[in-house]
Amino acid sequence: MAKSSASVRRELARDDEAFDVPAAVLCACCGQPDCAGCSAASDEGSGVVAIIPWERPIGGVWSRLWATSKATTLGAETFFATMPDGALPAAMRFALLAETLAILSMIAALLPVVALALPSLTLELARNPAARASALQWLAIGVPGVTVWMVLAHTLHGAALDLGARRQGARPERRRALRFGLYACGWDLMAGPLGALAMLITGGLKGAEQILSASLRVPGKASMALLLGVYALQPDAAERARRAGSIAALALTIASGFVAIALAIAFG
Fold first, then answer.
1. Which of 62, 65, 239, 241 is the most buried (most CB within 10 A)?
2. In 3D, which of 66, 121, 55 has the Cα closest to residue 93?
3. CA dihedral of 210, 93, 248, 188, whole degrees rounded to 10
């Protein structure tokens, strides 16, 4: 007996449901579903990008921040070559938090050095409440100011790379380029005292040396990964775009630094 059209549709619907497999949440760096996002892609990993560790809805703030910062530095080539598109606010929160912690840890590391190098200033701050208040006021202004400036510098780097890639014939990827710059702030956290200390605790001297060595090479490697992976440029074109983008970003960063210093002097 011939089947009715309604029964055929029901059978087809059941067949579709049988093969409807939900997508797994995979690491943005290695493609593994159970990875914290801190290791580079392996031959076994799928390499499929689903979500950056920082943007996952589960996990503590520090664990997501640390996993993402580590991925941007140790797994930079894979992380930035597969940089997913997404919203900017989450990336901006990551950048501000990473830079703030990097700057605060640098200040904490330099305070004992300054105290030993300038004992008279240290004694003055210890004895004079007005001097302490003035120093704290400068810190309260300076830390957020430097944080914003560093985030701006990284963002300008991403925008400059997008401009360089488009001049080489690539399709515009402005939002991904901005996300590149914002997530690149993880380099500063990993290269700073806090990142080195965390790596020393978790990986010993070898881990600290590894992260410091990677931090020196990561800007160029990450930029090339973005240009080759996201923009699909040929190596020669990617190198030209990287070079032009780096020069433009450096010039804009220096100019913005002079503007910030002028404003600080004017309103100080």
1. 241
2. 55
3. -20
Task: Show the tokens assigned to 37.
Answer: 């996002």
**Closest-CA residue to 176 (of 127, 229, 219, 131):** 229
d(CA 32, CA 36): 9
CA within 13 Å, CB half, 178: 12
Task: State whether the Cα torsion 261-264-266-268 is positive or negative.
Answer: negative
Give the residue among 205, 209, 178 at the shortest CA–CA distance from 191.
209
Q: Which two tokens stand for residue 180?
A: 């590149």
Q: What number of other Cβ atoms are within 10 A of residue 143's Cβ? A: 15
Give the Cβ contact number of residue 2 at 10 Å.
6
Cα-flanking dihedrals φ and ψ of residue 18, to 5°?
-65, -30
CB crowding 127-138: b at 16 or more within 10 Å, else e = eeeeeeeeeeee
User: pLDDT (tens digit, 9 = 90+) per residue, 80-128?
Assistant: 999 888 889 999 999 999 999 999 999 999 989 988 888 888 888 888 8
Q: Tell me 23's DSSP state.
A: P
- Structural contact between residues 212 and 100, judged by C-beta atoms closer than 8 angstroms: no
CA distance 82 to 45: 13
The SS3 call for residue 27 is: strand
> In Å, what is the CA distance from 80 to each residue of 71, 130, 182, 198, 203?
9, 48, 12, 23, 24
pLDDT at 19 over 90: no
Q: Answer yes or no: are the C-beta atoms of 169 and 231 closer than 8 Å.
A: no
